[in-house]
Write a structure and sequence with these properties.
It is a multi-pass membrane protein. This protein has about 400 residues and is mostly helical. The chain contains 16 helices and no strands. The chain starts with a helix and ends with a helix.
């Protein structure tokens, strides 16, 4: 494979992988404008974010079998087309209920891109290059939380919130063209692959029965769900409570993303001296302490805008340490059905994240307290699951380098 072809394939796969993160982050600065247009509240608009998380969670389980049965490109065609249609419909909505439903449909479409991009890395590149390619993909994905809300803030300020969905539809259309004409079919359709529920469910049950999986996958999912609470609650906190503009909020979101991304890089250094199973409990305990301090300060009104930013930054640093290690430890016991384990882990993360996101929306408090409270509750549950579940693990399977890259 030539260097130019190598770069072009990574560019396409990286773009596909970022469709979901862009869809989540880009419209956040438009929450107040959407709420005003639909005659509702910012908290209600955030339910459209929760429905997106539910859609991605369901899609994780849906597309894995479809990609193995029909090849990689046909499910991609369907997913991207569905995404484009849903995006166009989002800009035409007249009620918050319609937006919530359409965001769910949009998520189902975007999930095809996320799942296919990971599968195609293993199809198109030699096994020895997988870790390097995953690292390059993660570099592209890591830029999304910094770029998407900032771009969304400027687009909303200049043209209105509807143009965010026009932009997302245009991006997906370009991806669809690239997939049709420039991305090879990397996996021959397998008509013998069963889509019947029973063998699929049996495969999932065999994964769930492994103590190392359920301990780290569930604790990691609850720890990670604090991030979803932040994403869902931050538009109200910063734009409604602290009265910053959409563009300023985009920059705040980008700055806070440095905590998550930077911690991932620090984690690579820590793993040279410590094991993943040593890093996870320390990071989760720190996450519990920080979230409880944040919750107490938010309840008493102690933290202003800058104090809130500092507390969220520290919380995201903990998430950045917990998530890749818990994810890698979750899939480490599996060799034959690593794809099933990965899909189930992703579904758990996004499903619990959707509940955390919806939980923030259920409060009517005009403060940072709902967001901080959900962060604290999910962190405590994560710690309990971890320390109770570890008692059932007889032998820790150790993740290899490629699993650590995939977990990032």
């Amino acid at each position: 494979m030539t260097r130019q072809r190598y770069f072009f394939l990574i560019l396409i796969l990286g773009s596909l992988a970022t469709l979901g993160p862009f869809s989540i982050d880009m419209y956040l600065p438009g929450f107040p404008a959407i709420a005003k247009y639909l005659h509702t509240t910012t908290a209600q608009v955030s339910l459209s974010l929760a429905s997106f998380f539910v859609g991605i969670s369901a899609g994780q389980l849906l597309y894995g079998p479809l990609l193995d049965r029909f090849g990689r490109k046909k499910p991609l065609y369907i997913g991207l087309t569905l995404y484009i249609i849903a995006s166009v419909c989002c800009l035409l909505v007249k009620s918050i209920e319609a937006l919530i439903i359409l965001r769910f449909v949009q998520a189902i479409g975007s999930c095809a891109a996320a799942v296919a991009s990971v599968a195609m890395v293993r199809d198109l590149f030699p096994a020895k290059d997988n870790a390097k390619v995953f690292a390059l993909l993660m570099l592209v994905i890591s830029a999304s939380p910094m770029l998407a809300p900032t771009i969304g803030g400027y687009v909303t300020a200049a043209f209105g919130w509807q143009w965010v969905f026009i932009t997302l539809a245009a991006i997906a259309a370009l991806m669809l063209i690239a997939v049709i004409f420039s991305l090879p079919e990397s996996y021959k359709p397998n008509p013998d692959f069963s889509l019947k529920p029973k063998p699929i469910i049996q495969s999932f049950l065999s994964v769930i029965a492994e103590p190392q999986f359920y301990t780290y996958a569930i604790s990691g999912a609850f720890a990670f769900s604090g991030l979803f609470a932040y994403v869902s609650g931050s538009p109200l906190v910063f734009m409604d409570v602290f009265k910053v503009s959409g563009t300023t909020y985009g920059w705040i979101f980008a700055i806070l993303s440095v905590g998550l991304i930077g911690a991932g890089q620090v984690n690579n250094v820590l793993l040279k001296r410590f094991k993943s199973e040593q890093v996870v409990p320390v990071a989760i305990v720190a996450q519990v302490i920080i979230s409880l301090v944040f919750c107490a300060g938010a309840e008493s009104g102690f933290f202003g805008m800058y104090g809130t930013i500092v507390m969220i930054f520290l919380f995201l640093c903990c998430v950045g340490l917990t998530n890749p290690n818990a994810a890698a430890l979750s899939i480490a016991p599996f060799s034959q059905n690593a794809g099933t384990a990965s899909a189930l882990m992703g579904a758990l993360q996004l499903g619990i994240g959707a509940l955390a996101s919806a939980g923030v929306s259920m409060f009517n408090s005009y403060s940072a307290l709902p967001m901080a409270a959900i962060m604290g509750i999910t962190s405590i549950i994560a710690a309990l699951v971890l320390f109770i579940g570890r008692r059932n693990i007889k032998h820790h399977f150790v993740p290899d380098a490629s699993e650590m890259m995939a977990a990032h």
